[in-house]
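The methods section describes the discrete structure representation at length, but only in general terms. An entry of this sort, consisting of the sequence and the corresponding backbone structure tokens, reads as follows.
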Amino acid sequence: MPVFRFRLFDKRGPRPFVDEALGALERRVLELLWTKGALNVREACEAFAGPIAYTTMMTTMDRLYKKGLLSRQKQGRAFLYQAAFSREALDHRVAAEVMQGALDRGLVTALPVLSSLVDAVSERDTRLLDMLDDLVRQKRRELQGEDPE
């Protein structure tokens, strides 16, 4: 009987959460902007892999802007859009929200999540476990008002 593993994160980070929160086209547009940088709608249409209507691209970029994932500034009669976060920063924000959600539900819920984190880190690489230990020690010093170095 196969073992089912519910994975919050893939090798790049909390991508499954981002994938579920965004439609396929939104993910492709976000990837385009991470790759190409700031673009207006017409430039995004031209750079897009595959045909896409101008109005579809405009609507998608506006939705991503309203979700806070893109920033924009007026450039003539058009908007110039860019990703509001790098891939890494978005992964960090999603992971932080997942952890905060577990912590907000109390110790009974948070402890298994934290335990799973330690297990996953130690299975992957014991050096990561040492790094996690260093981060915890540094944070304790900061909270106690000591100089972290």
Summary: The chain has seven helices and two strands.
